[in-house]
Records
---
Amino acid sequence: MDCIALSSESPYVLILKAAFLIPISHYLLGFLFLLIVFLYNFMEMYFIQELFTGFRGKPVSLTFNSCCDLYQQVVSKCKILHGRFSSTPWLCSPHLQTIFLQLFERVPACNYQRQILKTSDGGTIALDWLRNVNVKIPSVEGFDGVQSDDKTPIILVIPGLTSDSNSAYIKHLAFKMAKSGWNVVVSNHRGLGGVTITSDCLYNAGWTEDARKVIGHLHTQYPQAPLFAVGTSIGANVLVKYLGEEGVNTAIVGAVAICSPWDLLIGDRFIKRRFAQRCYDKALGIGLKIYAQLHRSISPSLTDWDSISKICCIRDYDQHVTCVLNDFETVDTYYRKVSCSSYVGNVRIPLLCISALDDPVCSRETIPWDECRANKNVVLATTHHGGHLGHLEGLTGKSLWWVRAVDEFFCAFNSSSLMRREKIQNNTVNSSPLKSIDEAPYVNIREDGLVTAFGEEPSGELGNEQLVEDDKVDNGTVQQEPNTTTQFDPVRCPNINAMMVPVKNCLNQLSGRSKISMWVLACVAITTTWPILGSLLFKKKMRNNFSSSSTKR
């Protein structure tokens, strides 16, 4: 009877009665557990994975060309780049790494000395110096500067978006490098670092003119001091773009790009995908809006201030400010033109690039793997974790892994033979710049088969080799006046001697390297041509027999 009476009640009532029997503390524990699971996934934490591996971290991945001298002579000696990166145990999240560095990280005291640099368009750039001898000495009034004959290496630092010399990661880098014996100079973007805008020009992700001006100034003022450069975030995009534009015609002897956005168009799509990324986008957009409004009276070209006051993301700022000041048709056009991924292939000086695969601001999808692998001057180092400009390590999180990596890389580079070669190359380029073939009115074929360009002046070569004179008929060239237009006959018999020059040159090089190669080449030639020669001889023999038989008849 009890069973029948019990079964007559509604099952929902039974469940409700059972729920009231569970203590409230158990509900709180369950809610806390679900909250932890949600935050663990939302913050993209990897504490459990690190716990199972004993917090050993994961090895750094290096991407480079097999013929890369930078790796052979410098990076191969860097233990940090060949080691592992292990995050701070309580910061096992790319978001925690990024946020903690900006908001809660204890930064070293940097006593900067400021130097003001004026540009040709009336702009003002603040250069904040931290000399190796003044790391622990309070700054003095004014700027006594670095002696012009000082040979201490100089490191130029280009900060990221809305960052200046007072940013936490910039201070970590400047203090570490100055303590290691380098002179550090931070080039603040226009309107940042406490300096007002003095011209109708604001900085952007592709503005390399200020970097070019600063580098030229430093090289002129301190010609005996090797000049290095470090770019962070947007500053890395500016640095790589500048190096790609200049090629070998730069005073920089070595550079490092940290957490570069690489492709701004893909990065714009990425930063709007998830809620966490949209938070970064909004924070940076508000910072840019404040930057524009702060210099409203100096920017007469900006008229739509109602739209500027409503900026809430990076794309809005680029649409209403960057595109207006720099005459870009659309925001996507601006992103395509200034992305440094299109310039990394043209870099002609040693460049180390460091990126984190879990960067919440700059997606791993933007990394130009193939371009970095194809360029013999570039080494790409990627870590599985680290966040954006984070890489906090150790139990207390006081150390930045990428700062130690930069310090070790520059020290190894400065003591390598590659450093001496870069000095010689820079001196040669500055003394006698070469003209490209495309810029010359006509060309000349040399005896060794190379094609050289002729302009208004005969261009020299690094090896002090003399060019063949124009009036040599053997090379198939004709001497002409520099200002006359070269005309070619539509039907012209090719010069056989000139055409055979490259073939003879290759054969001479091959015979000079190894006699065995010549014997192998001869065997291959005989083997491949024997069927043809045999058939020709057989046909000739049959023809002779046929003619003799017909004569007898």
---
Amino acid sequence: MRISFCQGLLTGAIILNLLILYYVSRAQQQMMEKRKELGRGTKRGAPPVSVLGGGLGVLVGGGEEPGVVGAEGHSHGPRVTVLLREFENFENYVGDVASSFLHQRPELPFLAVADTSPYPPLVLPEGARLLILSPSPDQPPQAHRPEFHVQTEFVLLVPDGVELEHPRAIERLIRELEGEGGGPVRLVAAPVLARSAVQCLHLRVHLREWTATYSPAASGSSGSVCTALQGDAVILIRTEDLFNLSVPLGRPLFSSLFIQTALRGWKVKLLESPCFSANHRPLFNSAHNQWKADTRVKDATGKLMKSFGLKHLLLPDGKEQWYGCSKETPRCFGTVQDDTPDYLYLDRWTPPCCLRALRETTKYVINILESSGVRYWLEGGSLLGAVRHQDIIPWDYDVDLGIYLEDVPNCDQLKNLDSGSLVDANGYVWERAVEGDFYRVQYSEANHLHVDLWPFYPRNGIMTKDTWTEHKQDVEFPEHFLQPLVPMPFAGITAYGPNNHRAFLELKFGEGVIENPQYPNPAKKRWDRTKL
């Protein structure tokens, strides 16, 4: 069989890629082994030097320094790399921070890390280096990956403007972390003496619900153990732990770091001492620069939350931050196929911003129906959610209400929809659905989260319709379930539902439906209770 030129070229490209992957993997393994040896006090020769993006020489390891005494009192190479990640290009004290640490501990590698080359350029003292994370097409991949440029056992994460006054403070942190052994405490922190004290927090991250919750943590006599920090602090972490995180140096650093460590069950111990000084506080000399910094942190937080799949933050002061959809943006998921929204395939439930929009729309629609004299009741999955949760089912993507067809002329928003859709004064879109003979109320023109209104009429004591969908719950039912309608809590309001909800639901879904929750189309995606 003859091989064409294109086939040969493709084969060569594949072989070249495999060779590159092999050598990168081998280099990573050697780097990890070298770190472990350094941690045991193995002596090394002079540190290698790598030239990174922008022609900057970057220190990638620490060499042996005679007479340097480590945490155990033995002479060996440095065990810690000082790393500064959080600073602003337009005003910073990175050079001063590097000078302070290198004056007290000249043997320590000092690494400033930036996404792109800072402008104006940083002025760094001898021994301090800059690492640019953005890849460059003329550089090998390891040139911009921080794990290739730290060969010490530990990393000390320091904020901008901090100073090292006591050379032995770092050894104190090392002893504290080593004293924890292999327990859940994987980070040790020391406060920075600033205007606002650093606060220990508890952080619970629920990826399935797209939510992170912060709450204050109590302080102990020998230091606080918690899952997150708020405020200025210096943090010591093992290098291996740091670079086992999926995003080791994301920004904002504390948000990125503690979300990932909390998901792994790691804890941070906040010591009362040693303390690090910070003469440069506030960091910015003008209100304008402070505003620029705050804006950049806000933007970086939004990008971080999007990449982590978090849409709702509950802060320790009770405030909330939202990073999902709104009335002015599209909803968080696209067109639903096979009754299974895309987030279920990610083992996620309905994003909280979408649930919030559904609750607002439901409350709005029900208020209009009641004030217009339109009889309605909770239908299908919405009734099931009311019975189980007094709310929308956590993975549902719309709300269903049944209405009496004969009451439609009572409602100004519904009675003329045959001639088109209506955008009301509050931005809600009322329309006759294109999928069938029912009505739909959307959250907005941009955001298509919606409440569906299903018109029924009685015939010989049976509630029926002229057209039907393929949903198994879309069936006729006796009118006596609606005589009378009964109030029930739902989505933060009181709505009306059938008077015998169990019998009604089992007629539509089958026996035991209340006690046995399942996703809408188990053939496509089945709820795995073992993941709860």
